[in-house]
Amino acid sequence: xxxxxxxxxxxxxxxxxxxxxxxxxxxxxxxxxxxxxxxxxxxxxxxxxxxxxxxxxxxxxxxxxxxxxxxxxxxxxxxxxxxxxxxxxxxxxxxxxxxxxxxxxxxxxxxxxxxxxxxxxxxxxxxxxxxxxxxxxxxxxxxxxxxxxxxxxxxxxxxxxxxxxxxxxxxxxxxxxxxxxxxxxxxxxxxxxxxxxxxxxxxxxxxxxxxxxxxxxxxxxxxxxxxxxxxxxxxxxxxxxxxxxxxxxxxxxxxxxxxxxxxxxxxxxxxxxxxxxxxxxxxxxxxxxxxxxxxxxxxxxxxxxxxxxxxxxxxxxxxxxxxxxxxxxxxxxxxxxxxxxxxxxxxxxxxxxxxxxxxxxxxxxxxxxxxxxxxxxxxxxxxxxxxxxxxxx
Length: 393
Fold this sequence. Notes:
This protein has helices at residues 12-22, 47-59, 72-83, 99-114, 129-137, 156-163, 188-201, 223-231, 265-279, 286-295, 298-330, 337-340, 352-362, 381-392; strands spanning 29-30, 92-98, 120-124, 141-145, 147-148, 153-154, 171-175, 204-209, 234-240, 252-259, 345-347, 364-365, 371-373. The protein is of the alpha/beta class.
């Protein structure tokens, strides 16, 4: 059996990690991996996370399973964080998942079970795992235009034109905030128009929100998701706690199914629990318990929100500094969009050949499509990167 296996395509980001580690140059800069790093190049454990873990360690007296859907307290806390009061709790079914990726996979499982003929529409470009999982599962997919490589902004006219081709019951995958890989986001007026287009076609929105709090603030980053969930008849939301709580290795995520008819929820909840059972039975609990402890304790939550805001402001400063340094290095405002983008990522709009030249000549590592992780920079590397980019243009 095993000798019948065929090699699978290498993950480009993981290959980039290996190449970076093998590079012996002292000046190397890693802008590839989508992990937040502080000015010292470390992914720190947040203060509130440490405090929550200590409380859990002292109080927890069992490691028994929590249930197929995970701890209900985690679901309630996350629904409150993401949806606020815009959707009644009785209109939301939810299950804990192994990270945001687990939530996305379970969402696609739900689509395949409920609407086996539906096409899933994804933005061009999108996070590479979206099309990878869809292709592996054999789910029909199509793309809608999203990013204009000339302006490095949202191609909204193209997006709306393509959304005109969706069919009733199709799934449209949208990024709730901090679009990965481009950093270019819809404004609220554009979100309203997208919602109208989805409702006109009776399509189902699926929101991937992995960076709430990294863009314009914790509340502001949730506005679009809340609008969609409140305005559309049904929606799916996949959320990750990896970034905004910094608990990457704990693999903490949640999948929500939302309907404006509460009568749908009993079956939806049972189905989500069933899908968990088929894939991994009981979801991991430690990260979920950390998040629950933080969100349900006023002091811990305040400290978490303050540290998250520091992280966000730090990335915004790096964006402004890089845009300014590139303007000085190139003599143009070609890269001014970097300061306008939000989240960890921006796509620079340079060619794969220029990206390779940056790696070979300057030890600068980024994905071939020129996506960079802003959080991979610091005050010392910003001017170095700007000069390197200017030299390869």
